[in-house]
Amino acid sequence: MSNKKSINFVTLRTAALLAGVASLLVIGVTEAAIPPNASYHGLTDTAQAPFPAPLKGLVSFYENEPTSHPHSLEWVYWKLSDVVVGVDGSGNNTYDWSRFDSALDNVARRGHQACVRFYTYYPEDPPRAGAMPSFLNPATFSWRGSLGTEYAPNFNDPNVVKCLTQFITALGNRYDHPTVNSRIAFLTAGLIGFWGEWHAYTDEPGWNESAVLNDDTKGQIARKFQDSFQNIPVLLRYPLSSQAQSYGANPFKFGYHDDSFAFATTGSVAWYFQPKLSAAGLLNSGNEIWLTKPIGGEIYPPSQGDVFRSGSQNNYNWNAGLAALHPTWMMAEKYMASNPTPASADYQNGVDASAAMGYNIRVHAAYFPNSTSRNSNMYLGVIFTNSGLAPLFHKWNLQMGLRNQSTGTVTTWDTNWDLRTVRPDWQDYLFEYTTSSTPASRGLGAGVYDVCVKHRNPLEGTYPNALPFRFGTQGQGADGWMKVGTVSLTN
């Protein structure tokens, strides 16, 4: 098919990416300057978003693994005291990461990635007690729970704040490296408040929540997360108050998690999740937070029994939440642990729910020459679209490959394309690349080769079960390589 130079596309220039631009602004729609010898190669979309796919969907609990329902994410809920084990002579934290690292390895060996929260106080659950490092021992405020008297920490204690901020720095230094350590997909801020949910509410008479956890503490903790993580997305439970923001914490630097999804999500009640985000200016038209940061959370546990049952109120609430907030992932402990059988409607509805969340990036078409000298650098232009609910929030290595049709060997080039810039707007995004070396210099002889692209999961090579990134396009192989056509290399 001939080169369709008259078609208008949104053009993202590889040159700008290579110059170090972290994110590109799409300035209008311009005619794509595609080389005259590059031909158009159209591809066919899949009927729906493929699943399981990395970095999205329903999340199982680590403690319940293995579960049979398809998923790519596991919820790792971890006691801080398992990592912060003491203080040195200068009063600084000492750490033992071994158990936490072992858990992340277990997740990755299953081909999954972790959604992580550290907590320091988990009320009314004796097995989860003792999560605050013992050297702090700040059990200060008593209240009556269903199991008797509970003792909540004073999260505002300067020693507690010092311990937590030091830990956040250490956590970022150790794990916030996307090409080195990608076992953590998302991090909820956690650490403070009941269950790590940034509140300390009880119906105890005379209870003073701000005495237990105030906005100054929230501001300091949020600012430390903001400074310590540039790669792993960090999600907050609630928008930051103006007092918390006075510490330099920017509410637009964080994603948000709704831990009562499909129950207290949409509606006119002020404390529901959507109204809270709206009141904070995080859902203003054209500047919605889900366009730049992920939305996650947990399906309200009592709703999980029928949330994927068509016609139920909880299913209605689920669909309303998807439309309003564009989530990328949701915990579903009870649903996933029930291991619904593949023959059941609940099973397929759950798979469909996972597929509907987050991104659905499609390879719409490609431009490259049908024939080119193997002694010349080769041009490839690929048009991506995103028909999903949200962008992709991780930059993985996007490779161009030429695959030997006889041996299956793929010779690769790293493009530095950033699929995070492909917004969920059904628009065409053209990415362009010219190989940095000739096919001949890479040992390729004359012949016909498959032209392929792959968004490479960084877990590959270390963890054999790593899930390949799935495009919503027909023809992608189980190894993640997406064939976009063939090229004849000549002498």
Descriptive account of the structure:
This protein has 2 domains: 171 residues, Sandwich (Immunoglobulin-like); 300 residues, Alpha-Beta Barrel (TIM Barrel). The two termini are 24 Å apart. The chain is built from 10 helices and 23 strands. The chain is α/β, with parallel strands linked by helices. The N terminus is likely disordered.
Task: Name the average pLDDT.
Answer: 90
Q: Low-confidence parts, pLDDT < 50 over ≥5 residues?
A: 1-31
Largest sheet: 8 strands, parallel
Measured distance between first and last alpha carbons: 24 Å
CATH fold naming of the largest domain: TIM Barrel
- Helix count from the secondary structure assignment: 10
